[in-house]
Design a protein that fits this description.
Thiol Ester Dehydrase, Chain A, 6-stranded antiparallel β-sheet
Amino acid sequence: MTDEDAIADDLRTRIAASPFHSGFGVEVEEARRGEVRLGWEARDERRNLQGLVHGGVLATLVDMAMGLAVRSVVGEARRHVTIEMTVHFLRPASPGRLRAIGTTQRVGSQIAFADGTIFDANDRILVRATAAYSVTADRDAASG
């Protein structure tokens, strides 16, 4: 098994164990240290009143991609939580297949920075985002 396979397997296992992530329906398409590519089907029930994919749902998707990219670097003994995120909505998103890419820019001992992009099925950029994550020891690992 390659390092990329091990990272992707770890992320898929974590997603499957999280009711929020698995219920959202996100899939790890590719993963390597510092970069994660997610696939997601934007279904009709994720639309806003204008019939477009709700911006909050897109922000969640790009946060997942960036956060999982951070996870691919910090590993199992540390955890991360979003402390700041800026999202730019560049185009409206229609229901259908979307792809989100998260890339780490810097991962330190206490803080990590990542960029994220969401593309539609025609490879048009819909969303660009940046975020900062607090990085700490995992509570379970720290306690014992």
